[in-house]
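OP here, attaching both records as promised.
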Amino acid sequence: MSEVLIAALLGLSAWGVAAGIRADRRNRAARRLVGRLRAERDPLYCAASGATWFQAETINGPRSARHPFVVEVSSDRLALYPVARDEQAPVIVRREQLRWFGRPRKYTPNVNEIWLHAEIDGEWRLIRLRLFQTQMRALVRALKALATDEHNAAYRRRRPYVHHGPVAARPAEQDMLGAWTLGDPLALYLTPLHLVVLSGSRVARAIPLAQIQAIAAVQRLDAPDEAGLVRFQVGDESLAFAVDDYERFAALLGEAARRTLEDPVEWQRKKKPSEDDDWEDEV
């Protein structure tokens, strides 16, 4: 065996040992944090993620790295504590900041993912986190206790949940002669419960989908070669936005809005697992 190969193998072995030491330190730090949180806050649920991760993204803004974490759900908040080499501030979502939560796919025997939307400090956050099946079931039970009835009803609706964007848009107003005037550029982000209007990363408006009616995709007669319009009503208010793929966006908006008006699926415990993939969600 050549000296170069021997050196490479020794280097690889040393790297593996160092990685194992770092992982052991993280796990011990996570266990200490779990113990402290359980003693201080008496949470509904608290656990270390082990080999899984969470990631927080500001829509139209930065996205964090994926971190192993400790999750704590109390009666008033969800907190995610990154377990990393450098101490970092936790991501905290208070009850009044939570906008939606749901799992994009049914439970699997291994790693499962859940998404949460929150409006924090004037920005819209999307938080993705992964846990093993048993942990995810426990987390969902705790989230149901934290969330509002509206959020729990949305969780029980059938997938797929509608997410789209953010897409570039401009608000549009029509004059008496039928010509449209476009305002400053914005972005539209469609979630299962809200149409979010963003100015940069700031939330200009979050419109509940249940309030949106009379959705239409409209080609501009005054400028047929330019972006078409997505037009709809919110109560007595008429809104329109110029969007490049306006027909698709209007269709997705209509689908998402219609789902908010449907009654959630009534899960029946007598069903067999094969009859409904989410029968076990009821707690």
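Record two, same layout:
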Amino acid sequence: MNRLNPLHAGAVLIVLVLFFALKLSGAKEELILAKEEYKETSITLNELSSLSSAYLGKEEVKKSLQRILAQPSLRGANIEQKLKSNSIILNGSSVDKEALNSLMGKLLNGAYDIGSFNIKKLSENKASFEVEIQW
């Protein structure tokens, strides 16, 4: 009775093989899920890096706004700039509609993060506005 029965050893080996086969199939499924998550993460990372390069930093925003406001159509518009820690506010109390149209076209077509935007019609040719551009 002290000897090991070959049938018992074979049964134990078969159970061990089945156990490891189940573990291996579970590991394969986890690997497939990890690969899919990696692909999704890399796509998201690429999108985020393209967005961060599209939006400008603080100094780039200041320089590009200075270029825009220095244009001849906007020089006489009396547009005030208020600098905050994380944004700049452009304010015009009585701006001609052509100058306002030019400014809004440049701001809305540019890569600016516009936080708030208010325009109020004063007369047929004049309007007031306030735009907050964040960085």
